[in-house]
């Protein structure tokens, strides 16, 4: 007996039409439709698409709750071993629909799911929740995508352990899986360097996170009327680190009142940072957080005011997501307090 | 973190020693500092000299905050 699969595709891949037919409501068909054939072929009888659900991309986007309910009802009635959506390549609404519906099937019906799309497809935002095979950015990539999805789907249906994302071709989902490389690290690094120097393709084993950009804000017009706040990722805290900010991979930030403080001294402040030699900051924390100078300038009238609170955390090993969350939160506090500009220091 | 402050609508200057990281994380106003463990100080100097240098760096940071920028800009000291 072969495994039963329900496949979800959009109006385009079902040959109903393009954008002009994107409004069509979900429809249930027997057997495979369109790209389902490539999956069936790859399974060689071990698994088979029993039903195909076709739904217009705009319909799903505009009637998400209805579409979801309808699809879930059909899938539930079929009791398949696996639910596959797409691949959607770089079609945004289709990718969103595939990831969203796969996530719903997995969460509400407990059936294994798999989808596929291009890495920059907005649907790929759900890659930590739903297994997504990385594909090319156009349907021309079907020839590679279908076998990769079929292979991984079969493993899931058989309940086999799946390998690392690099081996199986799914998008990294934050779950680390150990495996043995064929070559030692030194050789892989040298091979990569040689490939890079000779302009040959190579794949990094440690991709850098991608950073978005924010346009600069308008400059301060009159410093003598401006409230300036100090923030740091250098871990400056009151002596004794009262909030126990971790020396690495910080889970929180500190907010400390410096109203009336003219100078940070070895007796009153220190650093919690575990990623640099703390001797200099512990002896004089102004070396990281220049409270002394800003207080002087406040007294001289060069700046309007040094904000009463400073915000601090330890940048060492702290995840981008955490750092982003900390600053997004205290930026709102700074705004509310009427702070005009911020000096952020990093070690 | 600088980006989240900027996103909230507050101009921000990043004072740091490793400016390429600052560029990568997307700071718009950047002032290069002295060294990783003491960005705004230099323990090899006397307290007075050190403070003078710190003041110069902070003044540069405030200058950056009063300067309109279109794109990521490093304000050399």
Can you give me a brief rundown of this structure?
The complex is a heterodimer of chains A (347) and B (77). Chain A has 10 helices and 13 strands. Chain A is α/β, with parallel strands linked by helices and 347 residues long.
Across the major sheet of chain B, the strand order is 1-2-3
Mean pLDDT across the residues of chain A is: 94
Q: Low-confidence parts of chain A lasting 5 or more residues at pLDDT below 50?
A: none
Count of extended strands of chain B: 3
H/E element order of chain B = HEHEHE
Q: Strand order, biggest sheet of chain A?
A: 2-3-1-4-5-6
- Low-pLDDT residue spans of chain B: none
Per DSSP, the total helix count of chain A is: 10
Architecture overview:
- The complex is a heterodimer of chains A (347) and B (77).
- In chain A, helix 3 (64-78) packs across helix 4 (92-109).
- Chain A is of the alpha/beta class.
- Chain A is elongated, with a radius of gyration of 27 Å.
- Chain A is built from ten helices and 13 strands.
- Chain A has a six-stranded mixed beta sheet with strand order 2-3-1-4-5-6, sandwiched between helices. In chain A, strands 7, 9, 11, 12 and 13 form a five-stranded mixed beta sheet that branches. In chain A, strands 8-10 form a two-stranded antiparallel sheet.
- Chain A has helices at 36-43, 57-62, 64-78, 92-109, 142-158, 165-168, 185-197, 279-283, 291-299, 320-336; strands at residues 3-10, 27-30, 47-55, 82-85, 113-118, 132-135, 227-232, 236-238, 254-257, 269-271, 305-306, 309-312, 341-345.
- The longest helix of chain A has 18 residues, at 92-109.
- By secondary structure, chain B is α/β, with parallel strands linked by helices.
- Chain B has one domain.
- Chain B is 42% helix and 14% strand.
- Chain B has three helices and three strands.
- Chain B has helices spanning 2-7, 19-25, 47-65, and strands spanning 12-16, 29-32, 73-74.
- In chain B, strands 1-2-3 form a three-stranded parallel beta sheet, with helices on both faces.
- The longest helix of chain B has 19 residues, at 47-65.
- Chain B is elongated.
- The model of chain B has no long low-confidence stretch (mean pLDDT 95).
- Chains A and B meet through helix 8, helix 9, helix 10 and strand 13 of A and helix 1, strand 1, helix 2 and helix 3 of B.
- Strand 13 of chain A pairs parallel with strand 1 (12-16) of chain B.
């Amino acid at each position: 007996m072969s495994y039963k699969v329900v496949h979800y595709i959009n109006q385009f891949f079902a040959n109903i039409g393009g954008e002009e037919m994107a409004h069509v409501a979900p429809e249930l068909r027997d057997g495979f439709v369109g790209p389902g054939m490539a999956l069936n072929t790859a399974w060689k009888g071990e698994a088979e698409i029993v039903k195909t659900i076709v739904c217009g991309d705009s319909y799903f986007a505009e009637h998400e709750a209805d579409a979801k309910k309808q699809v879930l009802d059909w899938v539930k009635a079929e009791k398949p071993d696996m639910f596959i959506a797409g691949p959607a390549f770089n079609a945004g609404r289709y990718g969103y629909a595939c990831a969203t519906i796969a996530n719903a099937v997995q969460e509400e019906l407990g059936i294994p799911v798999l989808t596929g799309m291009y890495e920059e497809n907005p649907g790929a935002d759900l890659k930590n929740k739903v297994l997504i095979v990385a594909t090319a950015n156009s349907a021309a990539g079907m020839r590679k995508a279908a076998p990769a999805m079929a292979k991984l789907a079969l493993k899931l249906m058989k309940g086999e352990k799946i390998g690392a994302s690099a081996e199986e071709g799914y998008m990294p989902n934050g779950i680390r899986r150990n495996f043995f490389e064929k070559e030692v690290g030194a050789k892989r690094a040298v091979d990569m360097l040689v490939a890079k120097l000779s302009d040959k393709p190579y794949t990094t084993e440690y991709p850098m996170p991608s950073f978005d950009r924010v346009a600069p804000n308008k400059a301060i017009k009159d410093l003598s009327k401006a409230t300036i706040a100090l923030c740091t990722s250098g871990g400056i805290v009151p002596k004794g680190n009262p909030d126990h900010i971790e020396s690495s991979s910080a889970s929180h930030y500190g907010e400390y009142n410096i109203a009336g403080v003219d100078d940070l001294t070895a007796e009153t402040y220190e650093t919690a940072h575990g990623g640099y030699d703390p001797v200099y900051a512990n002896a004089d924390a102004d070396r990281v957080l220049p409270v002394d100078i800003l207080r002087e300038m406040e007294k001289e009238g060069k700046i309007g005011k040094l904000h009463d609170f400073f915000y601090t955390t330890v940048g060492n090993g702290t995840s981008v997501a955490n750092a982003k969350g900390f600053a997004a939160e205290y930026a709102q506090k700074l705004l509310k307090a009427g702070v005009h500009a911020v000096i952020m220091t990093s070690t | 973190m600088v980006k989240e402050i900027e996103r909230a609508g507050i101009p921000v200057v990043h004072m740091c020693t490793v400016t390429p990281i600052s560029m990568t994380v997307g700071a718009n106003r950047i002032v290069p500092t002295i060294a990783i463990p003491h960005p705004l100080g230099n323990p090899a100097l006397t307290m007075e000299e050190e403070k003078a240098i710190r003041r110069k760096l902070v003044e540069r940071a405030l200058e950056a905050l009063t300067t309109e920028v279109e794109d990521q800009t490093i304000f050399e000291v």
